[in-house]
Design brief:
The chain has helices at residues 2-28, 36-70, 76-102, 111-144, 153-170, 172-178, 184-212, 214-217. By secondary structure, it is mostly helical.
């Protein structure tokens, strides 16, 4: 029974990585449709498909973590590859959002909105990846000392809010229509504030890892 539980959590992690490969073609797809209505429908369809794959991948992150913690069946594979799978998923999704903004395809009816979000998404992408590379370095140093660094609560909370941010931005046209948002600028400011709060979470969680594991980081620092 224990081996089945371990395998199911690890399989979910592997499945999440596989889903990322299904997201890659969306980044390179170029639209050459002449009809404007067909053009808009094609873009919206592709954003929807990308979003559904992302949501499915995000759900596997919750499920494999829940299984591992609920049954106390954490594995070395899961402790290493679960955060790696999350980082790959977030990286590809942010790249896709940035490309949509660059091509003014995130919100087709309001081209100026794309430019407002473009720099925020780029900053978000850079800071998130800098933090992730730093944590991966700490994990490698810890592994050399035969120690495993588990994900912190703040780190898991950071990942949750990043997932929410990506869903919020990716389906931005849907939210505008379903909630009948008239003042687009206020909604965009809300998203920008939410992204800024996410950046604070990213920085704080990174500092938390450093403070918590400073002994591991500097254990061999002065050795020649």
């Amino acid at each position: 029974m224990k081996s089945i539980i371990k395998m199911s959590a690890n399989l979910l992690t592997i499945f999440r990585i596989i889903l990322v490969f299904f997201m890659l073609p969306f980044i390179y797809f170029k639209f050459n449709v002449q009809n404007l209505l067909l053009y808009n429908n094609s873009i919206n369809s592709f954003k929807f498909y990308f979003g559904m794959i992302f949501i499915l991948a995000a759900l596997t992150d919750y499920l494999d973590g829940f299984i591992a913690r609920r049954f106390k069946q954490q594995t070395v594979f899961g402790q290493f590859f679960d955060p790696i799978a999350d980082k790959i998923l977030v990286f590809i999704s942010l790249i896709y959002l940035y490309i949509l903004c660059q091509r003014c395809l995130l919100i087709i009816d309001f081209p100026e909105v794309n430019k407002k979000l473009e720099n925020f998404i780029l900053s978000f992408l850079i800071i998130s990846n800098l933090r992730d590379f730093l944590i991966m370095g700490i994990r490698c140093v810890a592994f050399e000392q035969k120690k495993i660094i588990n994900s912190s609560f703040l780190g898991r909370l950071k990942t949750f809010f990043i997932f929410i941010s990506i869903i919020l931005i990716l389906f931005i046209e849907f939210w505008i229509k379903i909630f009948n948002i008239k003042n687009i600028d206020i909604f965009i400011h809300f998203i920008q504030i939410f992204l800024f709060l996410n950046i604070i979470f990213i920085v704080l969680s990174g500092l938390g890892y450093i403070i918590k594991n400073y002994v591991i980081i500097f254990a061999n620092f002065f050795e020649s």
